[in-house]
Amino acid sequence: MRTIRVETSAATILLTEAPEPKVRDRQTGEIAKDANSGEALMTIGVVYIEDGESSLIKVTVPEGGISEGLALGAPVSLPGLVARPWESVFNGQQRHGIAYRAAAVTPATFPAATGAAA
Questions:
Q1: For residue 31, how far is the Cα from the chain centroid?
Q2: Positive or negative CA dihedral for 33, 35, 38, 42?
Q3: Taking the CB of residue 46, how many other CB atoms lie within 10 A of it?
Q4: Which domain of life is it from (predicted)?
Q5: What residue segments make up the domains of the chain, in order of their start?
Q6: Partner of 106 for a Cys bridge, out of 10, 23, 45, 67, CB 3.0 to 4.6 A?
C-alpha cells in the first residue's frame, strides 16, 4: 500500500475532537493495535487549513504519541503525518478513502500574523 508524506509546515491544524481509542471490531469492542509495537491506537479529529482551504480529517496516532496539554480548538502539530489511499468491497459495494496517520500529536502555536496593522 502506498504511503504519501504530508508536508504540514504551511498548514494550520486545529484539534476538533479529543483522542479516543480506535476500535478495530465494533461488535467486540476490540481496540486497534499497532502491527509493529502492539501499542494501542487512538483517533483524533482535526481541521487542516492551508492556502485558504480547510478539511476535517481523522488521524490515527499511537497512544504514547499523545502529548499532555491538548485543548479542543487549539493548534496542534502532527509530526510524521502520512496519507494512505485505501479501497475495499463491503457487502458488495466498493468503498475508498484516505487514512491519515501521525507519529504523535503535540500542542503548537498559531502562525505569526503577516501584514500586522499599524
A1: 17
A2: negative
A3: 24
A4: Bacteria
A5: 4-107
A6: 67
pTM of the model: 0.86
What percentage of the chain has pLDDT greater than the value 90?
78
Which stretch of DSSP H or E encloses residue 4?
A: strand 4-5
Output the CA torsion 43→105→101→10 (10° steps).
130
Domain 4-107 has CATH 3.40.50.1110: no
The pLDDT-based confidence of 108 (bands split at 50, 70, 90) is very high
pLDDT at residue 118 greater than cutoff 50: no
